[in-house]
Design goal:
- This is Coatomer subunit epsilon.
- It is found in: Cytoplasmic vesicle, COPI-coated vesicle membrane; Golgi apparatus membrane.
- With 304 residues, the chain is mostly helical.
- The chain has 17 helices and no strands.
- Helix 4 packs antiparallel against helix 5 and helix 14 packs antiparallel against helix 15.
């Protein structure tokens, strides 16, 4: 997470922990850090805590990082609290913004953590303000994600180009290329597929990489191939958020039974009741029921 990109020691624990986190092998990242936990640097520990948060084990972060911690690692405790208590997000963001303003943050942890919480709260413009002007590839990759969520593909492409100038073969640069390609459309989607496939072969398939491939297959109407990689993703993690959503979408597109679609929906509601996708679907369903009720009443009055 260092602010400036330095020559990476590809044999270092930090390199492996970081890379495993990037490709979505979160337990792999944790396993690289654990043997050195007692003497690990703040930066190395940061990937273990980010990985714990990614696999919904934030309670472990809270147990390791106490409230009186005076290092940037305190940011991960704040992240856990924000995810667990959304009603306190604004207060937590206020604390983080104070740290961003006064801490030199050589590790970039305060900035990344603050931006992630802004993204979690759908405040993408505020996240971009925190990350603006940074030449750190993690900040730039997160900015690309924000811009894509805001449908600013043009700006995301520009920022991706700057990442390529810094390090074209860096994992985050390659992933950013894939994200932009997916958002651009069918002509570029195959390029994204090759990136995800290369990482699967070079490292190991993860739900993140397999879902990237599945989205390409769905976009190019290769539904059998999409189903195969999503099934493989389920073997990696049976309740993966993106996998369940993509399976539900694929079931709709291929005319699967309502029971199949409902099964995926029930799993999403069970495992991710407060997720953006579930809350949005529930709001749309409630609005639909409301409109149906209104039309039913109007029809009854007309007939009367």
């Amino acid at each position: 997470m260092s602010k400036t990109l330095q020559e990476e020691d590809t044999n270092s624990t930090l390199f492996y922990a970081r890379n495993e986190y990037y490709i979505g092998n979160f337990l792999g990242s944790v396993n690289f850090v654990l043997p050195e936990q007692g003497t690990a640097s703040t930066e190395l520990l940061s990937y273990m805590y980010l990985s714990y948060l990614a696999i919904d084990s934030g309670r472990l972060v809270a147990s390791y990082v106490k409230e009186d911690n005076e290092t940037p690692l305190l940011a991960f405790r704040y992240m856990h609290e924000a995810f667990e208590q959304p009603e306190k997000i604004e207060d937590i963001l206020s604390k983080l913004m104070d740290k961003v303003a006064i801490d030199e943050d050589e590790t970039n942890i305060w900035h990344i953590a603050t931006a992630i919480i802004y993204c979690y709260n759908n405040q993408f413009e505020n996240a971009l303000k925190i990350l603006h002007g940074s030449n750190n590839l993690e900040s730039m990759a997160l900015s690309v994600q924000c811009l894509l969520r805001m449908n600013r593909i043009d700006l995301a492409k520009q920022l991706m180009g700057k990442m390529q100038e810094i390090s074209d073969d860096h994992t985050l640069t390659q992933l950013a290329q894939a994200w932009v390609a997916l958002s651009t459309g069918t002509e570029q989607m195959q390029d994204a597929f090759h990136i995800f496939q290369e990482f699967c072969e070079k490292y190991k398939p993860t739900p993140l990489l397999l879902n990237g491939q599945a989205v390409v297959h769905i976009g190019l109407e290769r539904y059998e191939e999409a189903d195969a990689v999503l099934r493989e993703a389920l073997t990696k993690k049976h309740n993966d958020y993106d996998t369940l959503i993509n399976l539900m979408v694929l079931a709709h597109l291929t005319g699967k039974s309502s029971e199949t679609i409902t099964r995926y929906w029930d799993q999403l509601q069970q495992f991710f009741p407060k997720s953006e996708f579930v809350l949005d679907m529930e709001n749309k369903s409630a609005e639909f029921d409301k409109l149906c009720s209104q039309y039913s009443v109007e029809e009854t009055l007309t007939q009367a």
